[in-house]
Amino acid sequence: MTGSALGRPRVWCFVTQNDIRITRLNFVRNCTVIGHYKLAVILFIEAVSDSMTPDDVLKLKDEVLPRTAAFNSALFPHERIVDREYIVVVPSGVLPRTKEKGNIRRKAVEEDYVGILE
């Protein structure tokens, strides 16, 4: 089903990695937000620590939400990351990058994690 068939608009992805970085999350090595024209936006976080337990992942997700609340409040409700189910934590260096600058390739992340985004 499409977003409009479910009564929800498709989301333009306005949350940026810069928004996450300015919150000074010292446990986040890198991140990207995926969700352009999807039903919801998903924040992918590469954690600083590669050896995180499931409890550590939940704590990280719970720490991200209040720190991102300020810029989330400026977004439309369907653009916000307001629940930890919209945050995916992966080991550092897992997200695909460009060869030239090392930027995270959003389209490749969408393709790699299509099951989460659907």
Automatic annotation (TrEMBL):
It comes from the Eukaryota. It holds the Pfam family AMP-binding_C_3. This is AMP-binding enzyme C-terminal domain-containing protein. It comes from Mycena maculata. The lineage of its organism: Eukaryota, Fungi, Dikarya, Basidiomycota, Agaricomycotina.
